[in-house]
Amino acid sequence: MQNHPSYPVLSQLLEKYPATGGALFQVYNDLTLAQKWIDVEVIDLPACKRAAIKGKRPTPDTDRAPSICIVVPCSLSESISASWLRAAFTSLDPLPSEIYVAITSEDTSTVYYKISQGIVKPPV
C-alpha cells in the first residue's frame, strides 16, 4: 500500500484510523481512478473515528457544474447505527443534506448508498 501513488494523500489518516484504513484506501482509489472524481479531498471525522472523502463527480452534461458529494467509507463487517450516521452528518461543515456511505467488501467490490437527513421522497 505504501508504494501506491495515492498513499501520500491518505497516509496521515490511514495511520490515525487503521481499523478503517482499508475501506478508505479502496474507496478513494475507486473515486479518483475509476470514477474520475475531481477536486477530491480527504476529511477527518473524529466523531466517527474515520475519514470521509469530499469531491465532485463528473457529469455528462457540460452545461451543469459538477455537484459536491461526500462519501463516508466503511467495510461490510462494520455495524452502522443511526447515531453513527448522525455523527457523520454533524461532523461536516456546512451540514450537508445528504452523504454517501461506501460499503466495501473483501473482494474489493464497493456499494454506495445515498443517505439523506430526515424523510425524503425518492425521485419518481
From TrEMBL:
GO terms for cellular component: nucleus. It comes from the Eukaryota. Belongs to the SEN15 family. This is tRNA intron endonuclease. Signal peptide: none annotated. The keyword Membrane does not apply. Gene3D superfamilies: 3.40.1350.10. GO terms for biological process: tRNA splicing, via endonucleolytic cleavage and ligation. GO terms for molecular function: endonuclease activity; nucleic acid binding. Residues 26-122 form the tRNA-splicing endonuclease subunit Sen15 domain. Pfam families: Sen15 (PF09631). Keywords: Endonuclease, Hydrolase, Nuclease, tRNA processing. The keyword Protein biosynthesis does not apply.
